[in-house]
Amino acid sequence: MTTERTEIGLEIETALGEVLAHVRGAVALSSRIVDDPAATRIVALRKRMKLSRQKFADRFGLDPRAVQDWEQGRRVPDRAARVLLTVIDRDPEAVIRALAPPTS
Hints:
mainly alpha, 61% helix
């Protein structure tokens, strides 16, 4: 086990410090409400990326059945999934980098 602090670790510590300060009422953090993406937006996002449902799900760590249900309007993505879909829409490479195995 290493005791060396990584850049990402320091970023996480800073972010957690901000959250604690917010919870304690010391700072006000901005927030953003993410709207439920319509089924058509999810289909358009996936098609814009030229990915099948399975490949889209695999690339971004999603359940392929959930993607199918969202696209067909049988289910609505929960809050975490909506945020992830928003990030995928705006910067898919950021999600791909975040999900990549760490390099040694």
